[in-house]
Design goal:
Blueprint (H helix, E strand, L loop, with lengths): L6 E4 L2 H12 L4 E3 L6 E5 L3 H11 L8 E3 L3 H5 L6 H10 L4 E6 L16 E5 L4 H10 L3 E2 L14 H8 L5 E4 L10 E4 L2 E4 L5 H4 L28 E2 L9 E5 L7 E2 L6 H17 L4 E4 L8 H12 L2
Parallel strand pairs: 1-8, 2-8, 4-6, 5-9, 11-14, 12-13, 12-14
Antiparallel strand pairs: 2-3, 3-7, 4-7, 5-6, 9-10
This protein binds adenosine monophosphate and magnesium ion.
């Protein structure tokens, strides 16, 4: 049986007050960020963190990203070296997650890091997540607000469709601007490509690792998967496929008719949600250039295509 419908409130004072009360109670709420919608709970409470894993059906070995209001709050949780502080100063608030040594006295629930001695931290720029962090006054663990292994949500409706009443409240502030999960960096190495490209960060390009070398579960080969088979680099679709276009390939719906990669990233997950919901048996995607944020788009598409 389908879950009952969750409560959705538009971003504003009432939504932030209700979400703050829910988080103080140990519950989880969905909130937009500039990357994707996140499922937020108190990172210092093991019951709240357990509720995040349970709502997503996420395996407990897959650590969560912790969101904080600013660099000072981040430095109370993790140890920054000069390189990490330099990146934080340049790119926070923004779609950059730094993996750093966890302070022993940080007060973060153990399950957040899945027992690792490092922690993934981010200062988000989105007004809703910023308001929630300010009102809660504590770090918030927030993975993407979708059932584990499903396509990440970039709209409140995606969260509702994926999690139903497993989330106490969804704050709706429209579509996410970046539309892809944050770029994750550890010791100058990109662990997950994202909205901030290697060119923008001044770091070596993301390298696809072999499965045996996986150090972070976000690197699992199959992730972000639609239910239907997915073919990549397709110029013309088979009759039973929904074609997601780009540039000259128009398709059934296009990521960007003008070939703009930033527009394409913002639309990618919504396009995959729509293709998955269409009456066609399969999904095909036009070729996407691999430079800039295109590297992150192709990374998500490769994982979505992997069975
Ligand atoms: P999500 O919250 O769904 O965007 O996924 C968060 C991702 O952050 C995980 O899948 C990991 O890849 C990564 N992550 C979180 N904590 C760590 C950590 N301590 N070390 C390496 N990667 C991490
Ligand atoms: Mg996720």
């Amino acid at each position: 049986m389908a879950d009952p419908a969750p409560r959705i409130l538009p971003y504003g004072e009432a939504a932030i007050a209700e979400a703050t009360a829910a988080i103080a109670h140990g519950d989880v709420v969905a909130t937009p960020t500039e990357t994707v919608y996140g499922l937020a709970g108190d990172a210092t409470r093991s019951d709240a963190v357990a509720a995040i894993y349970a709502a997503k059906g996420r395996p407990s070995f897959n650590p969560l990203i912790v969101h904080v209001a600013d660099l000072a709050a981040a430095e109370r949780i993790a140890v920054f070296d000069d390189r990490a502080r330099g990146l934080a100063t340049r790119f926070w608030p923004g779609p950059l997650t730094l993996v750093l040594p966890l302070r022993a006295d940080a007060g973060i629930a153990r399950a957040v890091t899945a027992g690792l001695d490092t922690i993934a931290l981010r200062v988000p720029g989105h007004r809703a997540m910023q308001a929630l962090l300010a009102a809660c006054g504590r770090p918030l663990a927030a993975p993407s607000a979708n059932a584990s292994n499903a396509i990440s949500p970039t709209r409140a409706e995606h969260v509702a469709a994926s999690l139903g009443a497993r989330v106490a409240l969804i704050i709706d502030d429209g579509a996410c601007a970046a539309g892809l999960e944050s770029t994750i960096v550890h010791d100058g190495v990109i662990l997950r490509p994202g909205p901030l490209s290697s060119e923008a960060l001044g770091l070596p390009a993301f390298r696809v690792e072999t499965e045996g070398e996986i150090t972070a579960p976000g690197q699992l080969a199959s992730h972000y998967a639609p239910r239907k088979p997915l073919r990549l680099d397709v110029a013309s679709r088979k009759s039973d496929e929904w074609l997601i276009g780009f540039g000259e390939v128009m398709g059934d719906a296009t990521l960007s008719a003008s070939g703009d990669l930033i527009e394409a990233a913002a639309k990618l997950f919504d396009a995959l949600h729509r293709a998955d919901a269409s009456d066609r048996a399969g999904i095909a995607v036009a070729p996407i250039p691999d430079h800039g944020i295109g590297a992150a788009i192709n990374d998500r598409l490769r994982r979505a295509a992997h069975r």
